[in-house]
Amino acid sequence: MKFEKILLYVEPKTAIDTISRFTINLARPNKARVFALSIILHPLQKIKTRIDEQAWKRLYEIEEDAFEAGVKISLLLEELDKMSRDNLTQKLIDLSRSYRVDLIIFASNAKININKLNSGITIPIFIVPPQSTNKSDIKNDSIQWEV
Fold it and tell me: pTM of the prediction?
């Protein structure tokens, strides 16, 4: 199956190195565009800057990896007024339709309602097993993926 557009959803606790490398390695041979997405709770104005900065920093890490690999990437930061599994899942469904993505990738510890996601889309999803967030624990090309 060929993927032209991949939606990569990351949460604050997602191990960026692992999921970024996996997604980019999938996107590169397919010449796919990656849409790296982070969704945050609509913050109060006085803490908005800090929360936004943290989310953007994580997205920029993925962008850097994509540029180094020659993969096209778009960064998306979305806000929700109320954070819940159902709201988050509905946002993923809406964005996957809006951008007409061919695949959604996220970590297995993401706060997503899998049943709602499966009933709301007709594209494949790939759930990446969580890995260490410590860079020294992650070896470049030795991760074993189980499907």
Answer: 0.83
